[in-house]
Write a structure and sequence with these properties.
This protein has two domains: 248 residues, Ribonucleoside hydrolase-like (Inosine-uridine Nucleoside N-ribohydrolase, Chain A), CATH 3.90.245; 88 residues, no CATH class. Helices cover 41% and strands 16% of the residues. The chain has 15 helices and eleven strands. The C terminus is likely disordered. It binds alpha-D-ribofuranose and calcium ion (CA).
Length: 345
């Protein structure tokens, strides 16, 4: 049965791949896209979401602008990772015709109150935090929240311990996790522990192009910058596509497994944005998060390819050969080379 979802995102390259996947999945009815400041400033995020909708032939899906800044801290974008246009410097033409109507939280409240609706959050949690403040009843009626963010045993990507979405707005993330605790509900945390294992490699991209040149070339266009970034930053040959895993997991829970735990987000200081996962029960508090720790890259890419390319899984016979090891893709140093010279030496 189709499940109605709102995708809250900060497009962003991997957000864009996630939107493309969501729009290709018959399990999901994308009621609308709400944009939050994150990888890109909100206006740019709205523009990029519309570019993706246009490519997918789905400009019928409404897009709503949300928070322009985090709840408290200064806004820090991630254009160094996603390119000056937030879409891998593909510089796709603007799609005219967007008008500012409802706010993101106004759309969320209206849609959630109209019937069962979940939120797949792919960026900082500012919009959800604002919704909780503005309309706690609407927030409480969200059927389920799946959030790409945080990290448990894996190291961060903005500090040793913090992942970008929760580091960019730690107050917003902390308020949402507190809200889930207050409501006695759990948020599904699709963090770096699992997303780091989902690496789009050159081989996988080449396979995609061979199977569907139209889709494959588009994905190549918007990910080239991202491939370069990953090589410069981590000497990774490929790019980690975080957000599509959150969308895929929403539709197929067998893709990830993890632990239920009380989790809170550090709001400031050295570990700002860290998700403190009480896996041992020190705080004796009920779990407010399902923290996902294991995933199956082959199963993910089967879903990603079959839905995005619209082909049956039997045609994906090469995938097992391209996913080097269950749980591992691409070559990864596991550390940041401080300088190219040092690494070469
Ligand atoms: O840390 C990765 C997350 O931050 C992804 O959602 C990426 O798009 C950025 O928003
Ligand atoms: Ca994102």
């Amino acid at each position: 049965m189709k499940r109605k979802v709102i995708i809250d995102c900060d497009p962003g390259i991997d957000d864009s791949l996630a939107l493309m996947l969501a729009l290709s999945m018959e399990e999901l009815e994308v009621a609308g896209i709400t944009v939050v400041c994150g990888n890109s400033p909100v206006e740019m995020g709205v523009s990029n979401a519309r570019k993706i909708l246009s490519f997918m032939g789905r400009l019928d899906v409404p897009v709503f602008a949300g928070a322009e800044t985090p709840l408290k801290r200064e806004y820090v974008n991630a254009l160094d990772t996603h390119g000056s246009d937030g879409l891998g410097e593909s510089f796709l033409p603007e799609i005219p015709g967007w008008e500012r109507t409802l706010s993101a939280t106004g759309f969320m409240a209206e849609t959630i109150k109209a019937g069962p609706c979940s939120v797949i959050a792919l960026g900082p949690l500012t919009n959800l935090a604002v919704l909780y403040r503005e309309d706690p009843l609407a927030f409480s009626r969200i059927e389920e929240i799946v959030s790409m963010g945080g990290c448990f045993r894996s190291h961060g990507n903005c500090s040793p311990v913090a992942e970008y979405n929760y580091w960019a707005d730690p107050d917003g993330a902390a308020l949402v996790y507190e809200a889930m605790e207050n409501l006695g509900k759990t948020i599904s945390m699709v963090g770096l522990d699992v997303t780091r294992k989902i690496v789009l490699t050159p081989d996988l991209l080449e396979y995609m192009k061979r199977l569907d040149p139209h889709m494959g070339e588009f994905v190549a266009k918007i990910t080239k910058f991202y491939f370069d970034f990953h090589w410069q930053q981590e000497h990774l040959i490929g790019c980690v596509i975080n957000d599509p895993l959150a969308v895929a997991y929403f539709a197929d829970r067998s893709l990830c497994s993890g632990i239920m735990a009380y989790t809170q987000v550090e709001r400031s200081g050295l570990s700002m944005g860290q998700t403190v996962v009480d896996s041992m029960g020190f705080y004796r508090k009920p779990a407010n998060a399902l923290v996902l720790t294991e995933t199956h890259p082959l199963a993910f890419f089967r879903l990603f390819f079959s839905r995005l390319l619209g082909i049956g899984e039997p045609h994906l016979e090469l995938l097992p050969a391209l996913i080097k090891e269950e749980g591992k893709c691409g070559a990864f140093l596991g550390c940041l080379p401080t300088t190219w010279q040092e690494v070469e030496a």
